[in-house]
Every structure is written in structure tokens, then in C-alpha cells.
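Chain A, query sequence.
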Amino acid sequence: MQNVNLFYHGQPRFAEAGILLRDSFQRQEEQDTKESGRTFIVPSRLKNDENGSGLKVKKDEKQTVSIYVTPTDFLPDAVYDILVVAFVKWMRLKGRNEHAELFRNRSDFDLYDDHLVRLGAVKIKNMNVLKLEISHRIIEDSDGKSEISEPHRNVCIEVLDYFKHQLEYVYETYEGIGYKLSVLCTSCQPALQPHFHDLKDCLKKEKTCLSYLKEEFIEETKNFQIIQSLVVDYGTCKMKDFFLEIVQKRSSSVREFLKNEKESLAKLENFEGKDNMLSPDADVNTFSMSILMTLIRFCFPKYDDLWKQPDEIAMDDQRLANLILIQQYKNDKLDQYTTCRIPIKVFDEDIKTLENVFSELDLLSTTIDNMKHRKDFDIVEIIEIRNYQTVQSLLVDVGTNAMREYFLRDCNLNAEGVGEFLSNNKSKFNKINLLPEQKKIFEGDADIESFDISTMNKIISTCCNNPPVSFNRLCKYRNNLAHPARARMSEKEFDKVWLYLTDILKNVGVRIEEIDKYKQLRVQLFS
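Chain A, predicted structure.
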């Protein structure tokens, strides 16, 4: 079957119907091999705006940033309609279905309560051009005075990134034509006629609301995300498949196994997710790696004494040994990082080791290559992967650092004196359950930069007087985030979690500028 996408355009209810039609085609396509696609456009049901207020080519006011799609040859008539449907789908992913007004000459999307995105066609020297406007809404204070603010840089980056992905998809269906993203020039000599400059060139020359984080920071965060997706997404999937095989069940009938073994499973030591596993409505598809490996170990009591020695188990069961190696990597290395970044040298070594393990589990090398080079991901996958990583980076990087700074400030210490201080106060930790690796905090040369968020929470709760409850909230959420079935997060959940974490971090003294900086990761992880 040829790859076919069907778009149906009109008022919001028609556009959404078109999205559902497209999705149904795509689900059917998944059963076939991917081929070059065709795009069919159902005639538009959009009406012209009765007020005729289309977009204009003009200098941006303070509250607006504009990007133009200037064609290298000509602008196909259907591009606007396709992009409208793409934005409607995006609004649906954000849970803002009703926040759109669609017209033949322009469309308005209330992406956030304080930001408006507008898309429409304009003419420049008899050439059709698309214009994208991102505007910060003008707010009136209690005295009726207008407060005008520039669009937030994170919103600009997010919108531009989504826009670029959609344009790349659209133009794949048109051979021999292209486009450039441009900005209207406002700095050349006044005598020159209105003209455009390439967006990339403008971003290199000056600081704008589309500025980026440091390249090294981004690359190391990408490294972490690649390894995390490989280990968590594919590792968990391979463990689930293995478990279903050994219990000879389908996903839908695992509850029967859990019900029959509930009494024995209840006797197992407590672990993250145990309540979920024993729940009457337990779903194996939501089980984390720790749950699945606990169940697998339950099914292989003969290996109990050898569980931490996968090389020994490999002589009997290579597949099981490799699954244990994956779990060990996650527990002993991935979860122990105190930042969500992996230097290139460490990444190269670790990815090579993991490639060997996963190849023995029949994961295709092309799958790993696609992850490394960010190929063959659809837009929803991209959004959900980067949402998860962005939240995790904010929580681990910023949250842990905020806890370190609080501890040093509250106990009047510098970083070099932490080991000695904790060693002198070791008796206070007698009733605290410290993991073996956490007991290194009592060494004289202990490095506070190596303390993770869980360790810092135990130190603060033991050594500080009346610490903020926000630290407990951070630690609890970190524990929940560290045990997913997949390292993904929807747009709706991201928006909710981001507000939650922003509130916590602001309460413990983190500047909003530092929090906002991390939101840029959503764009740059797949750039």
C-alpha cells in the first residue's frame, strides 16, 4: 500500500475530522513498508474572515516576532491548508482544541493563555509568501494601563521548531521546489525597498529571543537522551516480551497470572512499583523495568544466588543475562548521574557496549543508528521524547543544584568541607536508610557535586533545621520519573508538570531565568 495522507480542511470540527481520517490511514500504513508518499487535499471548507483582516507585511511591534516562508520558486496553494491542520493537531495534543479560529486567509491559535500564534498568506512583489506571527498578548493592569512584553523566547523556539518540522514534511511531497525561512529587514538603509534576510544568518549575528544554549551542553544532553531511550524504551520492551514468553501469557491475560501468584508476590521485598504490580487493574504495558525484572527473577528462583553475576547465568541463558546487564546499567550508571548529560567519550564507550548487548537481543542495528541520528521519528514521538528529557533535566540538574546550595548555605559550609562535616555528624544518620553508594558521603574527600537528589534530600532532612517541604516533593517526583515504562511525556502532562516544578523551584530560590533556559531543550534535542 502506498503511503497516503488525507487532509480535510474547514472549521475546527472539520479539521479535527480530517486529522482522525489521516490517523486512521497512518495506522493502516504501519502494516506495510514505507514508500514515498502522496498528499491528497480535500477541497477547503474554510471561509474568508468577514472583516478581511489578513496578515500584513510590516515591521514587528514589540509584542510580536514574525517569520516568513519565502519560496525559492513558488508557494504551492495547498501548503497553508496542510499547515493549518498540523497546528490544529498540535493544539489538540496540548488540550486546547477550542482555542483556534480558522479562515481561508489566516488562522489564529491561542497556543497559551498569554501567547497567540497566527498563520496566513501575504503577497510580496506578486509572490505568495507565508507569514507566521508569534505575539505576546497585551495585558492591562488595574489602572487600565497596557503592559507590552516581548514574546517569551521559549514559546518562540517551540513554535519555530514545530513549524520547521511541518514544513520539512510538507515539502517532501513536492519535487524540485524549496523555501527559506526569512525575517523582514529593519536595519538596512531606509532607501532600500522592503526585503528579507535569511533567518539562520540573523540568529548568528545577534542575540534574539530564538537564542540557544551552549552547544556542548546540548550535545551532552542529547547523549543522555539517546542512551536513556535505548535502555528504558527498548530495554523495558525486551523484558516484557521475555516475561510474557516464560509465563506463556498475552498482555491482556497477565492479570490472571498476577492474581494466582499474588500471595507469593506480596512476600517479596518492597520495591518501586510493587503496589502497581499487585493492583487488581494492573497492566503489564505500564510496568517499569524494576517491576518486570522482579517478575522475571520470581520465575527463575534457581538463579537467585547468581542474579548479580550475569556472566554465570549466560552459560545457561544468554538472553536473560543480557536483560540483567541492561537493568544493571540503568541502576548502577544511568540512575547515578547527577546531571542529565554524558560527555562524548563516555557516550562512545557506553553506546558501543549497549549495542553489543542489544544486538544479542535481536534489536536491529538500524534502529540504534536511527536513535543516534534522530531519524524516522514522527512529530508526536519527538514531542513526547523531548518533553520527558526536558523535565528530567530540569529536575535533576536544577533541582539537585538548588539542594546543594541550600545545604551549604544553611550549614555555613564550603564545598571542600562537606566530607569532614558529614563525617563529624555521622551519628545523626544512624536511623537513616543509606544505600551502599550513599555511605561514601562520610569520606573526608567526599565531593558534593557527586551527590544525587536522593542523597541530598537525606542529608538536608538530617542536618538542616526546618528545611523546605519542597525538597521532599522534588525527591518524590524524581523517584516517580525514574521508573517509567517509556521515557515519554505528552504535551498536556508536560505543561502540567512544568508548572508544578517551576512553582517548587521558585519556592527554594531558583531564578525563573534559569528555569526558562531549560525549556529550550525541547527544541534543541532534535535540531
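Residues 1-43, 206-212 have pLDDT under 50 and may be disordered. The longest strand covers residues 115-124.
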